[in-house]
Amino acid sequence: MVTVLAISSAIALLIAVRTTPSHVTSVAAIHPAMNFAYVRVEGVVVAHPTIEEGYLSFYLRDEEGELRVSAYRRVAQALLQAGRVPKAGDRVTAHGTLRVREGEPSLTINVADELHIETPTPQLIALDALAAARLGERVRVVGQVRRIRNVGERLRILTLRADQATADAVITLNHPELGHVTEIAVGDWVDVSGGVGEFRNQKQLLISRGEDIILTRPAATPYPIASLGRQSAGRWTAISGVVSDLEPFRSGMRVAVRDASGESLTVVLFDALWETLPFSLTLQVGDPLSAQGTLNWYRGQLELLPEIGADVWQ
Question: Taking residues 46-72, what's their average pLDDT?
Fold first, then answer.
């Protein structure tokens, strides 16, 4: 008799779990009386998922709020084995059991088949538009890699720059869809796609697939030197021309560059940078040279301050 009741209870639970709610529950509509209710939610993924053995969770945001969605044990394992793990920027529909604790809702997925994932086509935006993008929006940006750092074994952060804008692109290294990641070096230009996330009030691009990182051609557009003046100080600027003068100083080399406008601008190269340039021992007046960096007003003159070796090239 006990066995029959146990089987009946299991069947009843399975039927309940698989009874798909006919409407979508918004996050804002969830209240404590809905604890243990079986609901359907829809939204976008706004952060890298947490992936561990026997556990998977991610944050889903709709138009009115955000909640954590989790899967445990066999359900989590089934999703991981099938590669059905949401990425930041994915649109997700999930069915599961609500828990409401201290006013904070969360959803537990009971059956792997009841997580549905769609990856939208990313929209190409300028890097300086990332700050205004919506959390969870899937976008594509182009920028130059200025810094690379690993945070533990799971995250790699690329700091990108394009013109005046900088932002971080964060790669999750343990996502099932990661695949091959292109070798990237500081100074490379990359075309990257991912979901918009946020860390300490700064928007980031969150990347989970190696295929969403593509090496591309430099996109720095040189400015006519004649158009630059004291009002340009503090701007990130690229110039291109020929070397018109070389002046060593105690800490490095000052290189004057003249462009087609006939005007010159001094590029200040401190030893730590100058000595990394493959042409530092052979550069001479008349050679072509391009450089980018921050414009600085110093002793009544405008000068260009590159940051890394990749900021100076021939």
Answer: 95
